[in-house]
Amino acid sequence: MPRGLRMFKRQSLTILCYHGVVRSALPIPDYCFLEASRFQTQMQWLARSHFRVAPLSEAISDLLMGRVTQPTVALTFDDGYRNNVDVALPILQRFNFPATIFLATGLIGSSKTIWPFRILQALQSTAADSVTWGGRSFPLATLAERTAANKSLQSRVKELAPGTPDNAAAEIERLLEVQENPDIDRNSPLAMMDADDVRLGVESGLLEFGAHSVTHPILSALDDDGLRREIDGSVQSIRQMVPKPSRCFAYPNGLPADFDARCITRLQDNGIAFAVSTVQAMNRPGADAYRLGRLCIGCDTTMLKFIAKTTGVSRLPGLGWAKRMIGR
User: Fold this and answer.
1) Closest listed residue to residue 326, CA positions, set 4, 5, 41, 1
2) Alpha-carbon distance 310 to 18, whole Å?
3) Cα torsion at 58, 44, 80, 274 (round to 10°)?
4) Helix/strand/coil for 13
5) Which of 100, 108, 114, 181 has the fewest CB atoms within 10 Å, counting from its CB?
6) Do the beta carbons of residue 200 and residue 87 sit within 8 Å?
7) pLDDT tens for residues 55-65?
8) d(Cα 24, Cα 239) in Å, to the nearest integer?
9) What's the CA gap between 148 and 144, in Å, rounded?
10) Cβ 172 vs Cβ 178: under 8 Å
11) CA 290-312-211 angle, 5° bins
12) 300: exposed, middle or buried (C-beta count within 10 Å: 0-12, 13-18, 19+)?
């Protein structure tokens, strides 16, 4: 990394947000599932760069106390997919990189998957050539159309049924004439962790676990009782699962409209010290501890996009230095 860029980022904390890491691409591509080869290249670049890759809670504490003196990155994974331990952890171990996994606790140890990927699974399985939901019709004749429908339907559910996404997913499954909320094979890339997976993660010494709600709704859409069930329930479950839970919470979906002041109060009442969003921003000294930004990394994040995101510069002159570092 050029010296001027290192100076610019010296006091910054970049929190990266991943979801699933898979051995091969899914039949219908989904942003949240990144191929392992690409993830490994990203970790290799971080190892060769001038970033410090630090545990999340430690990095946030250092930032808020003004102790960040070099560009720092923290790695996070949302939801709790089994592939985080099976596929991503061995790569992290090669580089001795710590990471935090935020669990949707209601699905840990179950044979079900999170609601957006019930939609994905349904689109992979259906024989239908179109589906109409939420006032829109989606053609499904080609892979490109199914890929577009997957992205659009997930967005429509967040918009039209933010507090009850599982009900919306069930309705879409019925319209597509596939099994409602099917069991997911343990070897599927959509499979969630169980207690043994969490234990292996803890024993690795590299993974910490934090709360990400119980069922992954949009928290701001819930009434006070629902909010309490989702936040209190997930925080308490994490404390029962692991000896040293993360002091950080990850908001489901995590955009500014997806959480509110009630959420922060509930987190504070539960002893949670920090919370991360998906607001695409680096974090500087003086950041709000309950509105920390994260940079999302997905299946379409090219290596040069990854470098641009992590360095915080959208236009790197020539990008020659970056290409040399990754051998491209």
Assistant:
1) 41
2) 13
3) 20
4) strand
5) 181
6) no
7) 999 999 999 99
8) 33
9) 6
10) no
11) 30
12) exposed
State the pLDDT confidence band at 317, using cuts at 50, 70 and 90: low
The answer to whether 284 and 258 are in contact (CB under 8 A) is no
42 close to 310: Cβ distance less than 8 angstroms: no
- 151, 145 in Cβ contact below 8 A? no
Pairing of strands 13-18, 72-79: parallel
Neighbours of 110 (CB within 10 A): 13
How far, in Å, CA of 122 to CA of 83, rounded? 20
Residues 6 or more apart whose CB falls under 8 angstroms from that of 12 comprise: 68, 71, 72, 282, 283, 284, 312
**Amino acid in the structure at residue 179:** Q
Least Cα distance to 71 among 120, 154, 145, 14 occurs for 14
Phi, psi of 127 (to 5 degrees): -95, 0
For the chain, which domains are there? 3-110+189-326 (3.20.20.370), 115-175 (no CATH)
State the DSSP H helix or E strand holding residue 79, giving kind and residue range, or none if neither. strand 72-79
C-alpha 129/C-alpha 140 separation (Å) is 5
Check whether 162 has a pLDDT greater than 50: yes
Alpha-carbon gap, residue 158 to 253, rounded angstroms: 9
Question: Which of helix, strand or coil describes residue 128?
Answer: coil
Residues 140, 143, 145, 151, Cα dihedral to 10°: 110
pLDDT at 27: 96
